[in-house]
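We modelled the chain as a single entity of 321 amino acids. Its sequence is:
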Amino acid sequence: MRSSTYVDPAAGQQTVEAYLEAWREQQAHHRPGTAASTRTRFRTMVYPYLGATPLASVMPSTVRTWQADLLRAGYSPSTVKGVRGQVAGAFLDAIRDRILTGSPFDGVKAPEVVSEEIVPLTVGQVRAGERATPDRYRALITLVAGTGVRASEAWGLTRDRVDLEAATVRVNRQLTGRRGPEPVFGPPKSRAGVRTVPLPRHVVDALGKHLADYPAEPGELVFRTARGTPLTRTVWGKAWRPAAGGGPAEAMGLTRGEGLHQLRHFYASLLIAAGRSPREVQERLGHATLEETLRTYVHLWHAADEGTRDAVDRAFDETPE
């Protein structure tokens, strides 16, 4: 105690859930979107497995079993590695606060993440996802697949930011939560996220039908629950992957942990196949840097090489010697 290294054994008897909930509230630097995703991850991937366990009772074997259980439940190695990193960071803070003497994560390997090239959905898969989506949210699938906007940007889209005549949507904020029945907005993920995105004809048609069926005033959300409240991750999750089975995720053949972001990849793949430049794809997706775009999709540009050859060959074939 004189050297300030004493750890009270009783301090480690608080449960993992109690400590992580307190720790989560202390992360003032988290953006609203990060805070929301952390809350969801902890409640679905941590608390059902470790929540009732006292902090001091979490052993390396406990961590290994937890990781294996998540992988068996269908979560991808990258998703498991991500939530593991957050929980391990919280345990390090517990050591700094003299609640624990050591971390059970030390010496336990994180799941190996093999960098796999993105395989975009097909148009047929997207169409199947649209058909399997409840009518109230069907146009949301079409919107994300046809514009590449992020889920939070689509959920936060208000009527005054949709111009069906000009066939554009203005993205300059995202839904970060709700306060009672009212939406809470925040800035896009980065400054590059502020953009105007052109709407393809089939997206204009889908949004037009949606707004005819579910009218919205200029400042109201385009996509709302049946009660008129903003979408939350929990509410959307029930529509995306219903407990009884079915839903758009299953119809598109997506695994657990794969969400609307797969439709962003689909949109990017269409632009690349059409010969759009990396800079244009970056601008449409709202990526902060061109490097991010290239790192994610460079293999798709390689796959488009044959199309480049065909285009040159056609030009010469049409102009004989």
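As a brief sanity check on the tokenised model: The mean pLDDT is 90. The radius of gyration is 23 Å.
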